[in-house]
Specification:
The N terminus is likely disordered. The protein starts with 10 loop residues before the first helix and ends with a strand. It has a single domain, classed as Vaccinia Virus protein VP39 (Rossmann fold), CATH 3.40.50. It is globular and about 45 Å long. 38% of the residues lie in helices and 27% in strands. A 7-stranded mixed β-sheet has the order 3-2-1-4-5-7-6, sandwiched between helices. The protein is α/β, with parallel strands linked by helices.
Amino acid sequence: MKEELIESVDKEELNQLAQQLRCPKGEKGIFIGELLSDTNKGMVLESVKLLDVQDKDRVLELGHGNASHLPDVLKQASELKYFGMEISEIMQQQAVKINAKYIKKRVALFLLYNGLNIPYVVNFFHKIITVNTIYFWTNPIDFLTEIHRVLKSNGVFVVSFANSSFMKQLPFVANTNVFSLYDHETFINLIAETDFKLVKIKNKTETVKSKTGEWVSREYSIAVLRKN
């Protein structure tokens, strides 16, 4: 059924798909969330490795989707506290449903937010991660400043994104105006305007099924940033 939702799409449908990828909504959004969970799992797990999570860390994930990967995050260290934030109401609801046992144990919390302001105090999180959300940031500099604010000194922020050369090949990207694309140069220039230190960028390639049903080779980058 998930595949049926993305077959035979025209330009209007491509725009609807792009909007759903930005912020899943309704019943269709649930299936989009499952697709995102399937296709992004490799990126998420590779990104989590570079977080270098330590015991008792407070970890924030921005744009967690249905968060079916939460067990993989929690097993990285002991006594972690995971905080998820989403702009999508249906994804927040699905994350709560899927991870009810972790919420009950008080090791996970999922909140809605506006994609701009993070409602936590200064220097609250040890680690912050986001995968495949940078394309949708309305004001990247302001948002990076907000992330920097809530991250502890010497804290790590990992941001992962598919490279523009790959993204341009996707019909729901090429034929819509929903995505802002990044390559190494544009990303490095963006970070240079912030107080973050760019520690490294790791390049990866994986084979995944695209949102329109084809198998594609996805080139992506994992950037490790640090707050001095």
